[in-house]
Design brief:
With 910 residues, the chain is α+β, with helices and mostly antiparallel strands. 52% of the residues lie in helices and 14% in strands. Strands 1, 2, 3, 4, 5, 6, 7, 8, 9, 10, 11 and 12 form a twelve-stranded mixed beta sheet that branches. A six-stranded mixed barrel has the order 14-15-19-16-18-17.
Length: 910
């Protein structure tokens, strides 16, 4: 018995091929999901890092190495330092200095020589908007032919292939946009004055092959001219002038030395495909080395002592790390919940198999089989099925999600396979460690938990309570490691342990009174529920854990959606907003009201520069119709107030100077201005006297902490004409609103504003992971229930057959099976609702959803909190009841189609 033999394994597989196939499918699916999680997480986190780098300006997403020409030597040394050969050699050295995992994209990088400031040109034919001469930026940048297409003329060249500081003429190319805007043609001559005047002749017009690449975007004037304004006082009408770019031949670098101050530069663009979240620390170390570490020392020795390195990568990495640090713990919570449910189902499969084969295994032990030999055979039996299935699931995950690390997924699939292989042998070892001939009754109502089980359950409860308390105090962001990440699952475990303890009590208490009931179906169903195997309580653990995961995950998704809706509503003020700098046309509100989906239209006269306290302070002032605006505030929930308290007093129509108008203010404004009357200088120069009578934190018309709202009827007609229209309605059509606005003002939709809060793949990835976790938990819970019902199906079929021989009708048989399934499904459903609600309420103080909702640590609508989602509680509970009753009814119907003799023979065979 100590040696595992293949014939025994083959015999077992041939005896129960259906069970083997079912186990293989379960292991393959679970292994695939387990391996897919780390790979999906890798893809989302890597995409999030790349998005964080892409969001910063192009000149900050690369590493800029700049240095002056060689100093301290002769003019020849300075010329040699800016020639293409030396620049290319320095570029190759830079590529070797940059440390992995930071990788430079050579196709998107650039280097060359340029003037550090734009130089004015005397050419009067160049555009002069305000009479100021146009200025030019000259650059001798390597690789023009590979980054542009020639539209006309030819590319610039250096006369004789070599220039010096005394060169007086050079050739250049300009882009199509520069030529069109500045009226430059092939053959145009531009004089650039400096220490030595340089005459530049345009020989070609080019079109960038990739205008958004760093080659063209780092120094944007090389691609497109810029209209700049001269420095001056804020708000003054300062004159403007054009700045364009001239692209000289790379060999013309020495000619720039005589014009102005020049700089050698190397723009090292990062390769987005090599940015991985797992390498974040290495990336930050590589950037730090270039900025102020060993890399910078090598640059000083290779290029020059005054070499400077600037980049915005470190700030991009820091911002991403903060976002990942806030969202990551929530993802861990979701993964731990779904993983626990899957593990419970795998263990339950082993437990149900061991219970089904209890008599067989007990007989083997009674005939002399050793415990080690028995476990070896069971392990071989399950490994033959589970190992290939686990490998198949891992392979499916690799094919479905390419491009991620294979090792974490391999470990996850291996863990699933190991659980599947060990569940049956360990459960059998626990049940048959001692040789027994007869175990007696082992049903729910009679078996008493052992002391070891009691100690284990109390330990789990203590750990769960500790994890929940830590999560409430420290929050998910600070303490999501270890047990804290399992807090939602542990809440479900506590509830499952309590329910398992309480489950037999009503069955025992109702057994005796049920005997007095008329009819046999009710007492028999109750007795059958009490005589169910004690292992039937294992599905309760899977169900309640799945309920908790579904409630928590559904509440996370609901809280994120609510936070985005609230932030978008606060920013827009309604479902849509049309705003202009000047008064809106009189017919525009009616046109907007007729747009598809529009229900209510509210006009507002908004002045952002109203002055109070003798002009020392400005703040937004909204002139409204009190009735319409109060209705809008009530519908949106943004500072609802009674309309009557804001109405102008009698006699104040049209802006009476003696009238004091009531006003609604924010808390900050009310604190500064007090409760007395004060004057406000309006946009038309008139004054209004106000007194604050209402204080609200928010208001639809103004987004911010400072605002005043008053009755428009109390102001002169020209003081605050309507320039804002707020619309409410379901399914507003953005196109219809834009057409109705007809270019008058800007159109903002709440739905569009809501989409701006999702600007990182980390956010969308976290939401998808939570959705998948909820779906997986629900699926495994349903599977647990089906397995529990299926394990008892043969015995129930035989029971119905015996009872039909005694006169039981088919209708009574259906009622019997349905009533028998309710004592397990009904407590699970009710307990699941209560557990899910308790988990959300307990963990809400420690869960902050702000970052995952709006991609920032603060939200316009305040902290995004976890709130109970009724649908996440009700749907799983109803689904469990429907599934349990449906399976019982289906089994009764199917059994009714077969003859009693067939069922009895099948039952005897089993």
């Amino acid at each position: 018995m100590n040696r595992v033999t293949a014939p025994w394994v083959r015999t077992r597989l041939r005896t129960a091929p259906g069970a083997a196939v079912a186990l293989a499918l379960l292991v393959a699916l679970t292994a695939c999901l387990a391996a897919a999680f780390p790979r999906t997480l890798d893809r989302y986190t890597d995409a999030g890092l790349r998005r964080a780098v892409e969001r910063v300006p192009v000149d900050e997403s690369s590493v800029l190495v700049s240095a002056a020409p060689a100093l301290g030597g002769s003019v020849d040394d300075a010329e040699d330092s800016v020639r293409p050969e030396r620049l290319t050699g320095a570029y190759r050295s830079l590529l070797g200095i940059v440390e992995r995992p930071l990788v430079v994209d050579e196709k998107r990088s650039s280097y060359g020589v340029r003037v550090t400031e734009s130089l004015p040109t005397p050419e009067k034919w160049l555009p002069r908007p305000d009479g100021l001469p146009a200025e030019m930026v000259l650059a001798a940048q390597e690789g023009l032919a590979g980054h542009a297409r020639l539209r006309s003329g030819r590319l610039p060249e250096a006369a004789g292939g070599r220039t010096t500081v005394s060169t007086a003429e050079a050739e250049a190319a300009v882009t199509e946009e520069t030529a069109r805007t500045l009226h430059i043609e092939v053959g145009s001559v531009i004089h650039v004055p400096g220490e030595r005047d340089l005459t530049v002749r345009v020989t070609g017009i080019v079109a960038p092959t990739d205008p958004g690449s760093p080659y063209w975007s780092v120094e944007s004037v090389l691609r497109a001219p810029s209209l700049r304004r001269t420095p001056g006082p804020m708000g003054a009408s300062n004159p403007t002038y054009w700045v364009g770019g001239l692209l000289l031949a790379p060999e013309a670098g020495p000619a720039l030395l005589g014009t102005a101050r020049v700089s050698r530069y190397w723009h090292l663009a990062t390769d987005p495909g090599t940015l991985h979240s797992r390498d974040l620390e290495g990336l930050r170390s590589a950037v730090a080395s270039l900025e102020s570490g060993p890399g910078l020392e090598q640059l000083h020795s290779t290029i020059g002592p005054l070499t400077d390195v600037t980049t915005g990568l470190d700030s991009a990495f820091t911002a991403y790390e903060e976002l990942r640090g806030d969202i990551g713990p929530l993802i861990v919570v979701a993964a731990s919940g779904a993983g626990t449910v899957a593990a419970v189902v795998l263990l339950m499969v082993g437990g149900l198999t061991a219970e089904r084969r209890r008599a067989e295994l007990a007989l083997l032990r009674a005939r002399g089989a050793s415990l080690r030999g028995l476990m070896g055979r069971l392990l071989a039996e399950t490994a033959v099925v589970a190992v290939p299935a686990g490998a198949l699931g891992f392979g499916a995950a690799l094919l479905a999600l390419p491009g991620a690390r294979p090792l974490p997924g391999l470990w996850a699939a291996a863990a699933v396979t190991a659980v599947a292989c060990l569940a049956l042998p360990l459960r059998a070892a626990a049940a048959h460690h001692a040789v027994r001939i007869h175990d007696g009754r082992r049903d729910v109502a009679s078996v008493r938990p052992s002391r070891r089980r009691t100690v284990a359950e109390l330990t789990v409860v203590a750990l769960a309570l500790g994890a929940v308390e830590i999560l409430r105090r420290r929050g998910a962001t600070e303490g999501a490691g270890g047990l804290v990440a399992m807090a939602p699952v542990l809440v479900g475990v506590i509830a499952a342990l309590v329910l398992v303890r309480l489950y037999p009590l009503p069955l025992r208490g109702l057994a005796r009174p049920a005997r007095r009931l008329r009819g046999a179906v009710g007492p028999l169903a109750l007795a059958r529920a009490g005589r169910a195997s004690h292992s039937a309580v294992l599905p309760l653990l899977a169900l309640l854990t799945a309920f908790t995961v579904a409630a928590f995950g559904g509440s996370v998704l609901s809280g994120v959606a609510d936070a985005r809706d609230s932030a978008a509503l606060l920013s827009v003020g309604a479902d849509a907003r049309v705003e202009a700098d000047e008064a809106l046309p009189s017919g525009l509100p009616d046109r907007l009201g007729r747009a598809a989906g529009a229900r209510e239209v509210t006009e507002v006269g908004l002045d952002y520069e109203a002055k109070v306290q003798d002009g020392r302070q400005t703040l937004p002032l909204a002139a409204v119709d009190p009735a319409d605006y109060a209705a809008l505030a009530g519908r949106t929930g943004l500072g609802a107030f009674p309309a009557g308290e804001l109405r102008r007093p009698d006699g104040a129509e049209g802006g009476s100077e003696d009238a004091v108008l009531p006003a609604l203010a924010s808390p900050a404004v009310a604190e500064r201005l007090g409760g007395g009357a004060f004057q406000v200088l309006l946009a038309d120069g008139s004054f209004a006297t106000l007194r604050i009578v209402l204080v609200r934190d928010r208001t639809p018309a103004v987004y911010g902490d400072d605002f005043l709202v008053l009755d428009r009827a109390g102001l002169p007609a020209a003081a605050a004409p309507p320039n804002v229209v707020l619309l409410t309605g379901d399914g507003l059509d953005a196109g219809a609103l834009h057409r109705a606005a007809d270019g008058v003002g800007t159109v903002h939709l709440r739905s569009e504003e809501r989409r701006t809060y999702v600007d990182s793949p980390l956010q969308s990835g976290a939401e998808r992971i939570y959705t998948a976790a909820v779906a997986a938990g629900a699926g495994y819970a349903a599977l647990a229930l089906l397995l529990s019902l299926a394990s008892a199906a043969p015995e129930r079929a035989a029971l119905l057959a015996r009872l039909r021989t005694m006169g039981l009708t088919r209708a009574q048989g259906r009622r019997l099976l349905v009533l028998e399934s309710l004592p397990q499904a009904l407590p699970a459903a009710l307990g699941g609702i209560l557990t899910g609600w308790a988990a959300v309420r307990l963990l809400s103080p420690g869960i902050d959803l702000t970052t995952i909702a709006v991609s920032a640590t603060t939200s316009p609508a305040g902290r995004a909190e976890l709130s109970v989602d009724p649908w996440a509680l009700a749907v799983p509970a109803v689904a469990v009841l429907v599934l349990a009753v449906g399976v019982a009814a289906l089994q009764a119907w199917w059994s009714g189609r077969r003859t009693a003799v067939t069922e009895l023979r099948a039952g005897d065979a089993r």
